From TrEMBL:
InterPro entries xrefs: MoCF_Sase_C (IPR005302), MOSC_domain (IPR052716), Pyrv_Knase-like_insert_dom_sf (IPR011037)
Domain of life: Bacteria
Gene3D superfamilies from the UniProt entry: PK beta-barrel domain-like
Name used for this protein in its record: MOSC domain-containing protein
Domain MOSC: 18-168
Length: 180
């Protein structure tokens, strides 16, 4: 499976959206250089409030560009970086990847998938009603989170729009993604 990076984003301050950049640098074990969420321990405010010593399993947020088309059909206009993601990708079913999948991005960077982004009420502050579009239920009534996936940086490197993303599935039985 191969996809492509369509946008990269980071922000030095806490803000819901992240400005697009010409490139971002991923730092092994830390996250996106210059991003407020980079670090060994958790940086997301809700997680810090629970336990600031937790490992940061949310160093990099990736989202599938196809979600923006789905949201547009429902009347929402969302562009890359506006949901707080660091990497916008096209051509991969990110939500179907198992825990431990390695994403080889560009020439050097490798991100290990840790889980699903758990969308919060801030999404409705961005656009009223959007939360219901990125969190729903499947036909069996199970909760479905569509606001992207999270990962940790296994190998650092520079990432640009246009870089390829190669998927390396883990060995053994695959564990489905859950919120992190």
């Amino acid at each position: 499976m191969t996809g492509v990076v369509t946008a990269v984003s980071r922000n030095e301050v806490y803000s819901f959206t992240k400005p697009n950049r010409e490139s971002i640098t991923l730092l092994a074990g830390l996250g996106v250089d210059g991003d407020v969420h980079a670090g060994v321990t958790v940086k997301h405010r809700s997680r810090v409030a629970q336990d600031p010593t937790q490992p940061n399993l949310r160093q990099v947020h990736l989202i599938h560009e196809e979600l923006f088309g789905e949201l547009a059909e429902a009347g929402f206009r969302v562009a890359p970086g506006e949901l707080g993601e660091n990497v916008t990708a096209r051509g991969l079913d990110l939500l179907a990847l198992p825990v431990g999948t390695l994403l080889r991005i560009g020439a050097e960077a490798v991100v290990e998938v840790t889980g699903l982004r758990n969308p919060c009420l801030q999404i409705d502050h961005f656009q009223d009603g959007l939360l219901k579009r990125v969190v729903g239920r499947d036909e069996a009534g199970r909760l479905v989170r569509k606001a992207g996936i999270m990962g940790v940086v296994a190998e650092g490197g520079v990432v640009h729009p246009g870089d390829t993303i190669e998927v390396e599935l883990p060995d053994g039985p695959h564990r489905p993604l859950d919120r992190v």
